[in-house]
């Protein structure tokens, strides 16, 4: 497995004003932490980071000040309005130590239950796994072709992958197919129908008593 390399540089300034100025130059702030070492404030070119991100990798080498550290992309903050990366957290890792992280689940195929009129619900979009950094999958692919009406796939039924352990609850539902709920058709006559107003004729003495209350 080829590990990609991201060039970064140390930054000494922090705060919203400094970060805004940094982003104006096409760079994004980042933090490298973990493994009982000091946190390091970094910055890197946004386009270079996005290019690596689009490869689907979660692990990379971060280089700065003649140093090279293996790290995991732990968290990314986005500005969804302008579709830009705001900040990145990198977690130091040892290539020989297993790591825990969440990876996306992708469904493959067309469910037989859907063909029979059912509705497919993708309940679990990502899953927590444990593996060596060099074995991190881009995604977990789950085939749903044979998933029938009223059936579900649980974590314990996910495909076994060498070197990967599923940490999420084994009984948790990943995807299911259920019967579509039919909505009752409302006829034009029902829409136009008005409720019947029932008026009770007051008993003798009630009418005068009610009139007195309004005075």
Task: Tell me what the structure shows.
This protein is of the alpha+beta class. It has helices at 16-24, 46-53, 112-115, 188-192, 206-214, and strands at residues 5-7, 9-10, 27-34, 37-45, 59-64, 67-79, 84-92, 99-108, 118-122, 126-131, 140-143, 152-154, 165-166, 173-179. The protein has 2 domains: 5-93, Beta Barrel (Ribosomal Protein L25, Chain P); 100-179, Ribosomal protein L25, C-terminal domain (RNA Polymerase Alpha Subunit, Chain A, domain 2, Beta Complex), CATH 2.170.120.20. The longest helix is centred in the first third of the chain and has 9 residues, at 16-24. Strand 5 (59-64) and strand 6 form a beta hairpin.
Rough outline:
flat
Main pleated-sheet profile? 7 strands, mixed
CATH class of the largest domain: Mainly Beta
Class by helix and strand content? alpha+beta
Note the gap between the termini. Answer: 92 Å
Number of strands: 14
Low-confidence runs = 208-215
C-alpha-based Rg, rounded: 30 Å
Give the count of structural domains.
Answer: 2
Strand order of the largest sheet: 1-5-6-7-3-4-2
Helix amount, in percent? 10-25%
Q: Could you report the average pLDDT, rounded to the nearest whole number?
A: 88
CATH H-level name of the largest domain... which superfamily?
Ribosomal Protein L25, Chain P
H/I helix tally:
5
Order of helices and strands: EEHEEHEEEEHEEEEEEHH
Q: What's the architecture of the largest domain, going by CATH?
A: Beta Barrel
CATH fold-type name of the largest domain: Ribosomal Protein L25, Chain P
Q: Give the DSSP E fraction (strand runs of 2 or more residues).
A: 35-45%
InterPro entries: Rbsml_bL25/Gln-tRNA_synth_N, Ribosomal_bL25/Gln-tRNA_synth, Ribosomal_bL25_b-dom, Ribosomal_bL25_C, Ribosomal_bL25_long, Ribosomal_L25_dom, Ribosomal_uL5_bac-type
Keywords: Ribonucleoprotein, Ribosomal protein, RNA-binding, rRNA-binding
GO cellular component, one term: cytosolic large ribosomal subunit
Subunit structure: Part of the 50S ribosomal subunit; part of the 5S rRNA/L5/L18/L25 subcomplex. Contacts the 5S rRNA. Binds to the 5S rRNA independently of L5 and L18.
